[in-house]
Amino acid sequence: MKRLFYLCLITLMFCACAPTVSYVGKSYPVSDQVDIFYSKEDVKKSYETMGYAEAKTGIFEMSPSSKSLQECQTELQKEAKKRGADGVIIDGIGTIVTTSGSDGNVSSTESKNIKATFIKYK
């Protein structure tokens, strides 16, 4: 029973280190390729906005790094393919600070996020 508990705990901690993606919007059949843009002005084809996504670094990451942000971008691209997008426009990078505590003991954690727009070419 203890082995199962520790296995579940390790699995949970491993999953909590991975980036997560939240998406709201339309979906289409799966795409083969997704283009990445860093400005809407860079998109040369006409397109429609499908929806919006946000990727966050894992909650147990001690020091969110550029590698974590690269992993977030990779996860956004995977989600975009799954949703049938032709492109992803990176709208910005932010920092989320979460503070918790009681009885005078306060701790805070920091994570990074990338906000993006999923697009479909017309």
Would you kindly provide a written description of the structure presented here, covering whatever features stand out?
This protein has helices at 2-16, 66-83; strands at residues 20-25, 35-37, 47-56, 87-102, 105-121. With 122 residues, it is α+β, with helices and mostly antiparallel strands. The protein has a five-stranded mixed sheet with strand order 1-3-5-4-2, covered by helices on one side. The longest helix is centred in the middle third of the chain and has 18 residues, at 66-83.
Features:
122 residues, alpha+beta, 2 helices, 5 strands
Number of strands: 5
Largest sheet: 5 strands, mixed
Structure classification? alpha+beta
Average pLDDT level:
84
Can you write the helix and strand succession as a string? HEEEHEE
Helix proportion of residues, in percent? Answer: 25-40%
Count up the helices.
2
Strand content: 35-45%
Strand adjacency order, main sheet: 1-3-5-4-2
Low-confidence sequence ranges: 11-16
From the spread of the alpha carbons, the general shape counts as elongated
**First-residue to last-residue Cα separation:** 56 Å
What radius of gyration results from the CA coordinates?
17 Å
